[in-house]
Write a sequence for this structure.
């Protein structure tokens, strides 16, 4: 036992010496890249298809996948970046690219702008990956926040899908409660809707913003209080599940375990690129609706980047990494493998090229985004440094509210204080 | 793997009496060349352990002491802050929650676990047929308890649709989601910890085996009942073992991480009810890139554990009886 433990460091040292960045192949050196992303086995499979196509065109590069569940991904990434073992190409989401770029962990993509082509990508989209004037991250695709609805569950409750161009939160609450009552023990009208994206939507509908252009918190305590009061109404009316079930659902992120995925819920707020995975899980023809609005107000939803490609600042092979990123962004071959899995492609030409190949579900997603583009308001400003903590803060305070341990106005005050503290540099 | 230690003075009751120590030490002798060579070889064999100890344990520990006085985001060089990290703890409400959760966990689960371990050891010691089998079965949870698989299983068992609620359903009680309710989530983790009573039980069993039968025989002659014998003979002679288990379990419980991380999905939820100290340290370090603050938290935990252990050793003078 002792001896083994004592020898472990030696073994580690030996292993470290063995693994270099390049391995000699039969004909010249092959560069090995590590590409990190989060997601399910399905996504890994699509990614492998993309890698096969990339390696066929670039025999001098070999790509190794490094993926984890969303819940574990950023913990794992932080550890490996801190250890100086960052993947060459890293997928980012939310405000993580700002955090990493702000701390010097990402390559300024201007250094490889002769390799990564961005002419076919709109400025609005690129702006999300631009930090302090430099481009560090390129969105993988376009996404929209949406209310997914399960027509089968609606039918079970004897209800029709609403007209999503006019519906309000009151309409939603009514429908949702009716479904909950009709399903009884078999399900709920909707999964609890509270998260930081919903607060962003709610803020926009109330003439505020979750974060301002200057990277400050823009939502007021009053608006947050109103949301939580509404969430409590939904819980009490049988629209959303009791707090314990909501807690269980919040602690896992697999589509197969959501209420929609198990056909035990009528509606849920999701990102449009999750539609495919949810449809597979539920086996039903799910529909995307524009989220309900405040009577006569803004629709509030928006088109945003789904994820970002970034390159590690200390990558030994920035040029090869840039070739991989360029391939994923601009080559139809990559888009044919990914389709809409990383959002609808940002490159307009590529998007047009794959339109015919989309499955019916993906077409529905593309149609939704086209409809949303008309209804969407001003773009959401890029998420500021420190805002990655907001998601956790909302989830925690939400369970305080749903378990009646904190009044909505107290939780709102705490939300403001905690997020402001996290945003402070 | 675990040996019954002998604390400070004397020996555990189990141990055979030490060989008669040499009364008068022999005059210092010149070491033979063979002994010298053997000494060198011994150090050579120790070298990998020593290098590992310095590089992998002591080095990082000292580095974390330095980092605890800095702001360190992992990605940029640390910046000196002085005592700011330690000052910040006074006002960190989530830290106070974490302390409350961790102390509750330690103070409730350790006594329960030791009581259960002692009770089962006592009954197994009364000559059960197939003792080895029972001992293995009861020891098994100790090997598994800290694992990820068991934590995932626990989440299922105590979930809304889990085994516990199905059993309760059979007798007509409507259960609830135990791990997802802030009032009960910590209790399920306490149950998990109590369930891993096997390791202290095996040590108790070894201790019980070493209590000379003559004490009990003498007590029988005097007409002592079962309870009196347990209270007046078994417990006093077992106190060194109880003390050993107590110290180890308290230290181990303060460091609980895996179970809380898995059961709450890394959040310490619902509503911070399973926010263990180590989990909070992890969140600050790896979730928010505040390695400096996380290092300071780790050092405070060290001080807390050292404090508990010191108090234990001081108190032990009053209640632990060594055989001789």
């Amino acid at each position: 036992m002792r001896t083994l433990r004592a020898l472990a460091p030696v073994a580690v040292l030996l292993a470290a010496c063995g693994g270099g960045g390049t391995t000699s192949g039969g004909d010249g050196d092959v560069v090995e890249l590590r590409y990190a992303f989060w997601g399910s086995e399905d996504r890994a499979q699509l990614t492998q298809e993309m890698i096969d196509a990339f390696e066929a065109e670039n025999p001098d590069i070999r790509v190794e996948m490094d993926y984890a569940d969303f819940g574990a991904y950023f913990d794992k990434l932080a550890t490996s970046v801190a250890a100086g073992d960052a993947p060459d190409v890293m997928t980012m989401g939310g405000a993580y690219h700002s955090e990493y770029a702000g701390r010097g962990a990402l390559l300024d993509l201007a250094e490889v702008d002769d390799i990564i082509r961005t002419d076919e990508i709109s400025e609005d989209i690129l702006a999300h990956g631009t930090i302090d004037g430099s481009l560090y991250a390129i969105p993988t695709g376009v996404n929209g926040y949406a209310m997914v609805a399960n027509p089968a569950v609606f039918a079970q409750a004897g209800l029709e899908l609403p007209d999503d161009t006019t519906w309000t939160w009151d309409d939603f609450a009514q429908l949702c409660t009716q479904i909950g009552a009709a399903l009884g023990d078999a399900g709920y009208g909707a999964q609890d809707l509270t998260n930081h994206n919903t607060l962003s939507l709610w803020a926009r509908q109330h003439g505020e913003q979750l974060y301002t252009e200057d990277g400050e918190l823009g939502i007021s305590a009053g608006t947050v209080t109103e949301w939580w009061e509404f969430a409590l109404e939904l819980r009490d009316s049988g629209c959303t599940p009791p707090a314990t079930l909501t807690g269980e659902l919040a602690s896992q992120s697999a589509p197969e375990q959501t209420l929609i995925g198990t056909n035990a819920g009528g509606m849920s707020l999701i990102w449009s690129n999750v539609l495919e995975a949810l449809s597979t899980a539920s086996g039903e023809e799910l529909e995307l609706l524009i989220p309900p609005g405040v009577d006569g107000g803004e629709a509030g939803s928006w088109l945003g980047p789904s994820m970002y490609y970034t390159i590690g600042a200390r990558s030994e092979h920035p040029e090869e990494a840039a070739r991989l990123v360029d391939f994923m962004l601009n080559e139809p071959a990559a888009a044919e493998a990914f389709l809409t899995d990383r959002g609808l492609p940002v490159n307009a030409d590529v998007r047009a090229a794959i339109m015919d190949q989309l499955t019916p579900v993906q077409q529905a997603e593309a149609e939704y985004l086209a409809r949303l583009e008309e209804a969407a308001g001003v773009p959401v400003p890029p998420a500021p440094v420190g805002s990655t903590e907001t998601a956790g803060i909302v989830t925690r305070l939400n369970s305080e509210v749903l378990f009646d341990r904190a009044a909505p106005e107290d939780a709102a005050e705490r939300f403001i204080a905690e997020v402001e503290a996290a945003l402070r540099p | 793997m675990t040996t019954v230690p002998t604390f400070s003075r004397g020996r555990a009751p189990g141990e055979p009496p030490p060989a008669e120590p040499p009364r008068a030490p022999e005059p210092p002798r010149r070491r033979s060349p063979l002994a010298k060579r053997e000494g060198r070889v011994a150090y050579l064999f120790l070298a990998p352990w020593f290098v590992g100890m310095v590089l992998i344990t002591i080095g990082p520990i000292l580095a974390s002491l330095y980092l605890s006085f800095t702001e360190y985001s992992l990605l940029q060089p640390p910046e000196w802050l002085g005592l700011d990290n330690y000052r910040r703890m006074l006002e960190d409400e989530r830290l106070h929650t974490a302390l409350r959760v961790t102390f509750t966990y330690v103070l409730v689960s350790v006594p329960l676990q030791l009581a259960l371990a002692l009770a089962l050891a006592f009954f197994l010691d009364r000559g059960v047929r197939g003792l080895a089998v029972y001992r293995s079965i009861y020891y098994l949870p100790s090997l598994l308890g800290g694992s990820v698989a068991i934590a995932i299983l626990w989440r299922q068992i105590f979930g809304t649709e889990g085994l516990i609620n199905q059993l309760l359903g059979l007798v007509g009680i409507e259960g609830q989601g135990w791990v997802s309710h802030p009032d009960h989530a910590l209790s399920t983790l306490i149950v998990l910890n109590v369930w891993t009573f096997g390791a202290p039980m095996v040590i108790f069993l070894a201790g019980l085996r070493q209590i000379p039968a003559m004490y009990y025989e003498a007590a029988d002659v005097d007409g002592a009942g079962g309870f009196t014998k347990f209270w007046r003979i078994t417990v006093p002679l077992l106190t060194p073992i109880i003390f050993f288990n107590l110290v180890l379990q308290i230290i181990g419980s303060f460091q609980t991480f895996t179970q809380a991380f898995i059961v709450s999905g890394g959040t310490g939820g619902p509503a911070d009810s399973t926010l263990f100290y180590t989990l909070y340290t992890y969140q600050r370090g790896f979730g928010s890139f505040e390695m400096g603050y996380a290092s300071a938290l780790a050092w405070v935990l060290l001080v807390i554990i050292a404090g508990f252990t010191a108090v234990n050793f001081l108190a032990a003078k009053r209640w632990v009886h060594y055989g001789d």
